[in-house]
Design a protein that fits this description.
415 residues, alpha+beta, five-stranded antiparallel β-sheet, 24 strands, binds adenosine monophosphate, five-stranded parallel β-sheet
Length: 415
Amino acid sequence: MRVLLLGGGGREHALALGLAGDPSVEQLIAAPGNPGIASLAELRAVDPCDPAAVAALAVETGVDLVVIGPEAPLVAGVADAVRAKGIPAFGPSAEAARLEGSKAFAKDVMTAAGVPTARAYTCTDAESTARALDEFGAPYVVKNDGLAAGKGVVVTDDRAAALRHAEECGRVVVEEYLAGPEVSLFVVTDGEAAVPLLPAQDFKRVGDGDTGPNTGGMGAYAPLPWAPPGLVDEVMRDVVHPTLAEMARRGTPFAGLLYVGLAITADGPRVIEFNARFGDPETQVVLALLETPLAGLLHAAATGTLAGHPPLRWRDGAAVTVVVAAEGYPAAPRSGDVITGAEGPGVIHAGTRRADDGTLLSSGGRVLCATATGADLAAARDAAYALVAGVELAGSHHRTDIAAAAVEGRITIPG
Ligand code: AMP
């Protein structure tokens, strides 16, 4: 099979490793890709958010499958444009991608489907925002209604800061705070059949001990030794299938990757958010453990044949990824610094580029994801940090506590 992969971050490098490792893949093309993906795929300088350009590239290269990594092309309708050419695309339609593109739409679907989630109000003015904040009390949760690359959410005890964020965003969702450890569950679906991947946990705050501002994600690990038994079955039954049924009922079936972000509260799992694509950096750890060939799985979802796909196989052990971020990330990341030590296996490229002379340079906030597997979580964590130690990038920073609480058995579910 010939596959076109869209995107150029760490998630796409992890997807490229999975796709290139599938024996059924004879050629992998990526647009725009990155220097890490360049060793696995032929790169094409096409804008992944331009539906007509991507569809033309898919036709020109004669691919059997287009895998869409980031959310922006989905919301722009790239999956629709590819499918209109008769080519299978892994990724939801623009209509279905609103599950991620609009927090208010997602809440509406969850309510209609009876999915357990935080109570919430959509607010567009200071008065209704203040009323909602006071009803729920601190900590305050205010979410930008539109796409914000994982950075549109403010969780704070500071009421004035919550109001300020709402005013800056215009239209926001104010919701009750959910207390409990977070889980990311990825579900591959063709709109009807649905296959869960291993649950993972990511680290959104920039600093150790979950301090500082939210980021796109500073690290992740899988599986979750502390997860309640039966968690995945419960989420499939109470969240995923009702949501897929509601989307189908509305005439906009969701096919692709449904990312369910959950808090495990005293009352059970509650949905924090849906995303319409693989999460970054959880993809790096989940795919590191997936033994089943990736392209075959995504092709089955893209062609409505997932019900006939064999059960997934997983490697034993655990995986950990640690993000190496640029100086100034997330507020004002500096780019253009020389990177060394990033050539070995396990170093996934997220924000890198090659200078004309071949030097590897930083070109984004999250620069590299040091990813390793091990016999258990502690071994995987140690191996990932050994990779971090081998990377040199002036001014870079990383969290030193990725997976630490899980390794030390310090994660507890409230109640
Ligand atoms: P989101 O973009 O909706 O995933 O929000 C980003 C992060 O904000 C989440 O991963 C949580 O850590 C936090 N968050 C969002 N909503 C809530 C909530 N209702 N209660 C507690 N934390 C939340």
